[in-house]
Amino acid sequence: MTMVAKAKLGLKQRYALLTRGLDWEPSYQSKSAVYPYAEFEGIKIHDWSKWEDPFRLTMDAYWKYQAEKERKLYAVLDSFAQNNGQMGLSDVRYINAIKLFLTGVSPLEYQAHRGFAHVGRHIPGVGPRVAAQMQSLDELRHVQTQIHTLSHYNKFFDGFHEWQHMHDRVWYLSVPKSFFDDARTAGPFEYFIAIGFAFEYVLTNLLFVPFMSGAAYNGDLATVTFGFSAQSDESRHMTLGIEVIKFLLEQDPDNLPIVQKWVDKWFWRGHRVLGLVAMMMDYMLPKKIMSWREAWDIYFTEAGGSLFEDLARYGLKVPKYADVATAEADHLSHQNWSTFYQYTQAAAFHTWLPTPQEMDWLSEKYPTTFDKHYRPRYEMWAEMEKEGKRFYNNALPQLCTVCQIPMVYTEPGDPGTIAFRTSQHKGETYHCCSDGCKDIFDGEPEKYSQSWLPVHQIFQGNCGGASVEDVLKWYRMNLGADNLDQAGSPDQKLWNEWMAARQRVAG
Amino acid sequence: MTIDIKTIKVEPRRQTFGHIARRLGADKAASRYEEATLDVQATANFHYKPLWGADHWHYDEGRTAIRMADWYALRDPRQFYYATYNIARANQYQATEHNFEFVEKRGLLGLLDPAWRGTVEFYLLPMRHVEWGANMNAATMCDQGYGTAVTAPCIFSAGDRLAMAQIIGRIGLALDGNSGASLDTAKQRWMTAPEWQGLRRLVEDTLVVKDWFELFVAQNLAIDGVLHALVYGRFDAEGQRQGGTGVSMLTEFMTEWFAEHARWVDSVIRTAAAECPENKALLSGWFAAWSARAAEAAAPLAARVLGGEAAKGAVAEALGTLQARAKTLGLAA
Amino acid sequence: MPRIVSITLQNTDAARPIIEAITEDNPGAVVHSFPGIVKIDREGSLTVHRASVESRIGRDWDPQELHLSIVSMAGNVDEDDDYFGLAWAH
Fold first, then answer.
1. Contact predicate A498/B12, CB 8 Å
2. Is B82 on the interface with A (CB under 8 A)?
3. Contact criterion met (CB < 8 Å) for A309 and C5
4. Which chain A residue lies closest to C37 (C-alpha atoms)?
5. pLDDT, tens digit, 9 for 90 and up, residues A337-367
6. Predicted-complex ipTM score
7. Is the minimum CB–CB distance between B191 and chain A shorter than 8 Å?
8. CATH superfamily ID and name for C4-85
9. DSSP helix, strand, coil percent of chain B (3-state; round to 5)
């Protein structure tokens, strides 16, 4: 018999036939038993078939492109290791930025992987479910390629070797960890908005684009390769994020206030976590690519501006406190770096004071704030170092209950005053660093009153002992190697030996 | 200025991460599989109980009744991490793509005996919904499971199931000239044809299983064990006499996949069963219940394809083979 | 405020013909170069045409191959057999 004449199928039709038709209405089990988490957040979806697939990758196309990316990436990693690519870095100080990356960011990629598996199972629409599952695979890719890339650095440098143990324990790593625990423990729609929209679409460009470009500029071919290779997946994720938010807003007007609350919350949560990146860009890249302020202007003010203008037709507003965050961009990296400088004994990466040339760069990039508020502090600390009285802060700081950052941020418009906010819940007082964090606490006090706050835990005796040394040992920090100043560190010593040897070889 | 790096002494200060070295018993070079897998999931000091289930942490050993002293004992014998998984599948699919081109060029589906063609449409095309159910279950296991060693292969498996659902969809399009009509009919049958209702009930029942390890046994051992043996084994063999070579070529991926998938599934179940008698009892009980249900649910479909007597034999054989396999894994018969 | 759509691509051999096709086919597109990447901005919308890339590389090119080179973007995506488009709604 002859075959039926074959019609040409467009990409959209073909994808719809192969994917969208897979789902069915269950009848032997109730829909609410199959999708038990779809309703408790109050989101109303009337018609899942209205979902627009942003990208239409069938699984075979996914494998094909991803395999090609992986072949390329691992070829670079192998060659980087074989040729001791770490010796081509601009300066050894750079490595501290990627220590923070492995201990602070890579575990979040893993969390994202598991979180997207959760929504990739529990969102009752076939289109977003498939896209979420692919994202779950991608996020697993990111954590694994990051481990493989940074494994080479771990062979030579300190601060990488206990990334997994530290992520669950160290005081400053509870900032990114609690951020993602917060998203993971939220309902599936909130997770989608938190990570897919607020984080991926609005904020991660700030991490992956300028920082990775900085890695390239500082000679880290391995990191820039995984960074840009990961970003090629992020573009798919960003598109998914924007489709989700549009879909929720189109489905029912009652979704708007819920979504707006999530956008406000996750914008602020993300802004706080990205303060670490601000510091990486302004202080930790030996060769600077652009300031945090400039990156913020491009990726939040300009790109976010167009985005929120686009979403205004649904009634969605620019996140609350976006103006505060934009004003803070002039202070954020300085306040964070100053904090780590003071607590260098308790951090698994090295710190240093900016050189005079670097301070001039910071003055130029932050004309309204650096010379006035931050340069004098660094100059005073430099003086103290010269006198052999390097400044260490030995008091355990109070932490914000929500973002878990020490209370170091200043009042909006008043950089001389530390901001404090408090809330009451069930007879207890909870402290926050800002109006943004306090709003979040007040929105879900049951949730945030559970926070595993590292300083509280130390005082309660849950972190290895009463002395700082006991706690650092419990963190599995190698004292005198992982922590303290860059100058005098084993990393620096090794680097100096390499550079001296290289000089000899070059004659 | 040229630099000869070889003349500079560059000695590693350590070989691998602390958590890997502790597992290997020494600081020695670790494989990419090990570094990408072992201890990657967080285990302590979680901040908040999930709004979607405050009885557990989001990573919690208590989501199954199975107990393991070390969840990283459940390793993947294939040693898949993302790169090796994707590259393996991309290569496999290249062969599938080739087969689609070949079958189309030679018009091999046109050689199907007309009656058998109808049978293929009846038994094979609704299987895409079975695969979709399997995809959801694999996502559940990745979501609820504990420890990267077992959860990472679960999301790989979810990808595999989606791919197989899409291969079946492509076969439908090849049969109906890209109209999609055959897929609509297949869905209709999945929803209403009496031969399919036992299987649909079975699949829907797995979607609400609470214990992810029970689900692992139900889906990966019991249901796959029975259905793959029938659909890609016995039914396909029957098709050989009726011009079915083209169909066999297009489902070659599934045959190859099943053999590889079974290696992983067997290894996980064997290790968990060997851990303690309580595990062995639980796994055996789950296997007995779900394999019996799978065989019962598949019987009407087998009867439609093979005819009454032959079907009885085929189902009994599939179940018997599976029971023998379970026995080698340490499960009680 | 102007509503800028944007696409960022790796600065690689595979991406260069795509960058060329974009700048040629989208008058007014502004190209910014950073280490390793090229960011292209345009007001309102931006399209990558299959035919335009194919004419530069002399072989078949599937717009989904963009997945290999893309680093970031801003705008709503419209992807089809013959083009990849970014736009803000009006």
1. no
2. yes
3. no
4. A213
5. 999 999 999 999 999 999 999 999 999 999 9
6. 0.97
7. yes
8. Monooxygenase component MmoB/DmpM (3.90.56.10)
9. 75, 0, 25
